[in-house]
Amino acid sequence: MKRAGFGIVALGLVACAPVQQKLVYPPVVEVERISLTSLRLPTPGRTAEAGVQLELRIENPNPLPVRLARIEGALVVEGQEVGQVTVSGLELPAQGETRQVAQLDLPLTLNTAALFLGIARGQEVSYRLDGTLTADFGPLGQPRFGPFTLSQGVWKQAPLRLF
User: What is the distance between the alpha carbons of residues 74 and 71, in angstroms, rounded to a whole number?
Assistant: First the structure.
C-alpha cells in the first residue's frame, strides 16, 4: 500500500510541475541583402523617394507548417527610422524556410536625404529591422510575436550612378 500511495503522490507532483517548453516558436527573419535601387527627386504631384530592396529569408523552427500572416516593421538606419515594411501571406514549410523580396518606396525628408545620399555614394551605415510577426497556426490561433529587432547589420554597397 505504501508503494501505491507514493506513486500517486509522485504522479500528482509531476502533473503540477510547470511546463517549461514552448509550444510555438516565432519564425526567424534575416535580411540577406539590402540595397538602395534609386533616388527620385520631387516632381509636381510626387514627393522625393528612395527605392530600397530588402531580400528576406524567413525560417520556421516549428515542426508544423506555418502561414505567416504578416511581418510589420520599421527600417532604422543609423538610429533613425526611415520607413515602414509590410510583407503578408508567406507559407513556411515545417522546419524550413522561404525567401521574399520587398521593394520599398521610402519618402525622402530633410532628415533622411543625407543618409540615403551617403548610401548612394558607397558609405557604410548600420541598419536594423524592428517589428512584429503574426503567424496563422489555423486552429491554434494567430499569435503575434514582438515587437523586437527582427534583423540588423551593416549596409554598404557600390556607389549608385545617379546622373
Answer: 10
